[in-house]
Amino acid sequence: MKILGIETSCDETACAVVEDGTRILSDVIYSQVDLHAKTGGVVPEVAAREHVLKMIPVLEEAIRDHAPDAIAVTKGPGLVSSLIIGTTTASVFSMVQRLPIIPVNHIEAHIYGNWLGRENDLPEFPILILTVSGGHNELYLMRGHGDLEIVGETRDDAAGEAFDKVARLLELGYPGGPAIAKAAINGDLKKYDFPRSYLEKGSLDFSFSGLKTSVLDLVKKQDGLTPEFVNDCAASFQEAVCEVLSDKVLTAIAKYNPKEVHLAGGVSANLRLREMMEEKIGGRAIFRYPKELSYCTDNAAMVAACGYYSYSKEKHKASNVTPVANF
Ligand code: KG4
Ligand code: ZN
Q: d(Cα 110, Cα 120) in Å, to the nearest integer?
């Protein structure tokens, strides 16, 4: 079954056609990153206007050689003014083509980034998933498709948000995550001993506000930002975030004994995080992150994959899924 995925929750206009939840037939992403780099972050009004301009060309390219059987679209969470472009496009396309429409949760879609390209090596449940993106930072226990339990979440900033804010403090530009990771390569990760917040004993929740404040205090004490300071600060900050994230995963593994552990969301592109998790998890569980870097950050293939599994489940329950979406 071929599903058209549509993603416009933030600053990527994306459409993709995916077969049976894993095989990518087309994958088109128009990124607005260069536009938002000028303002150091996403301006919702500017993002929405750009989605309007790019939505149809991106859609046309994605479906040129692949007629879909159903449409999956991100319904949220995200910027409302951006989401509406995707959901309206999906609704119109669904009415014109008489195709079923499947509303998809953006975080759940990120989770399905780990199914893409894995038709011969499907993940096995139960799976512990660390979702780390710009707006979200949770630990999920997934016992089956559509059976997700949040077992930990951030009490303040998400990991990606912390990367973006610290990058701004270090004048590294937008988006912050890749910029910090790049600067960290030439930095000393032991130079600054930033605080690691573990909260109460055994807690699976996260908190990054103390770490962020600590970087801010250090930056304020500097007499200008030298490349050496920026690199050391980026490396030490990244190390602190990765250590807390991977230690929390270890605590959750001991508690839930999952078969697999997955990384999902934009921050799963971080090579240091992958390396540290791999090392700490050892043989306790199968460890996966999205097969391609482009499946980590926002894309429409993950939306289509998620839509496929939720549609298959719904169809199993009731034989006629109507082409009506309740956004
Ligand atoms: O999942 P995503 O594309 O959008 C949201 O749903 O938020 O995640 C974007 C986030 C940004 O905060 C960005 O700085 C972060 O992912 N990110 C990274 C890396 N690449 C993207 N963070 C750390 N290291 C990276 N290599
Ligand atoms: Zn995302």
A: 20
**pTM for this structure?**
0.94
Compute the distance from residue 237 Cα to the ligand 2 centre, in Å. Answer: 22
Pocket test for ligand 1, best of 163, 172, 268 (most atoms within 8 A of CB): 163
Please tell me if the CB atom of residue 277 comes closer than 6 angstroms to any atom of ligand 1: no
> b/e per residue, 112-124, with b = 16+ CB within 10 A?
bbbbbbbeeeebe
Question: What is the rounded distance in angstroms from the CA atom of residue 195 to the CA atom of residue 140?
Answer: 25
> Would you give the distance in Å from CA 42 to the centre of its chain?
16
CB 210 within 8 A of CB 155: no
| Residue listed under structure tokens 């990518």 | 24
- Residue 23 bridge partners (DSSP): 19
pLDDT tens, residue by residue, 164-209? 999 999 999 988 999 999 999 999 999 999 999 999 999 999 999 9
Enumerate helices (H) and strands (E) in the chain, giving the number of each.
10, 10
Distance, in Å, from the CA atom of 245 to the CA atom of 274, rounded to the nearest integer, reads 11
How far is ligand 1, taken at its centre, from the CA of residue 160, in Å? 5
H helices within 13-158, ranges in order? Answer: 33-37, 44-63, 80-97, 106-111
Joined together, the tokens standing for residue 104 give 């998809």
Take residue 258 and report the two structure tokens written for it. Answer: 């999952």
